[in-house]
UniProtKB/TrEMBL annotation, chains A, B:
PANTHER family: HISTIDINE BIOSYNTHESIS BIFUNCTIONAL PROTEIN, HISTIDINE BIOSYNTHESIS BIFUNCTIONAL PROTEIN HIS7. It is found in: Cytoplasm. HAMAP family: HisI. Catalyzes the hydrolysis of the adenine ring of phosphoribosyl-AMP. Homodimer. Its cofactor is Mg(2+); Zn(2+). Pathway: Amino-acid biosynthesis; L-histidine biosynthesis; L-histidine from 5-phospho-alpha-D-ribose 1-diphosphate: step 3/9; Amino-acid biosynthesis; L-histidine biosynthesis; L-histidine from 5-phospho-alpha-D-ribose 1-diphosphate: step 2/9. This is Phosphoribosyl-AMP cyclohydrolase. It is an enzyme of class 3 (hydrolase). The gene is hisI. NCBIfam families: PRK00051.1. GO terms for molecular function: magnesium ion binding; phosphoribosyl-AMP cyclohydrolase activity; phosphoribosyl-ATP diphosphatase activity; zinc ion binding.
Amino acid sequence: MNSLDQVKWDRDGLVPVIAQERDSGDVVMFAWMNREALALTIEKGQAVYWSRSRARLWHKGEESGHVQQVHEIRLDCDNDVVLLKITQHGHQPGIACHTGRHSCFYQRLENGVWQSVEPVLKDPASIYAQQA
Amino acid sequence: MNSLDQVKWDRDGLVPVIAQERDSGDVVMFAWMNREALALTIEKGQAVYWSRSRARLWHKGEESGHVQQVHEIRLDCDNDVVLLKITQHGHQPGIACHTGRHSCFYQRLENGVWQSVEPVLKDPASIYAQQA
């Protein structure tokens, strides 16, 4: 059976994907893939997601240059969640978040309040300016 | 605003949750929470999920004893994904997966085939026998 057929795609034909930096172990992003996105990720060795908001394939870094090199692709026990071990390119340290932060998970619950606890490493305006 | 109100619950009233071991950095599990599950997780300091298959709250470890102590709760940039930093109790090393493995993400794509690359640490039959 094809490896893509073994994935249990949800009712929208998607699977949740966790991106974890291989070297730091940091979970930097969460996104979705459809079948074509996972096939392209395997083919390119770079993360290609399905953007639900834009309803199109999204080669991570296509605008920002912050591509994710994929070292490993893992599947969970229920075959319905994917974990990528990646290197986040384009900046040092890596910027995975569109806010210019290292990780998308920069809000921490502290005494009942979500606090931003990670710095903006680069102004998002300058990250995305190159697309204009 | 209440911290729970800031979470963007999906059309089913759920949010995806990633459980990462604080000390090892390993991503060990992926599950879902509804509002009540997240409230209970905050209250207990232990992970409480929403089981979609059983359509009920699921205090992780309630049957296996493999509870997840929650050290940190993070929210992503879109307010629609939660990351838990946990300690997996009940066995050393921690067993998060119902198959008796450390992590649910034990299948790795190798030359187009999903290979199981993590050992079963404990027979699931013996993990869940205590509930009988």
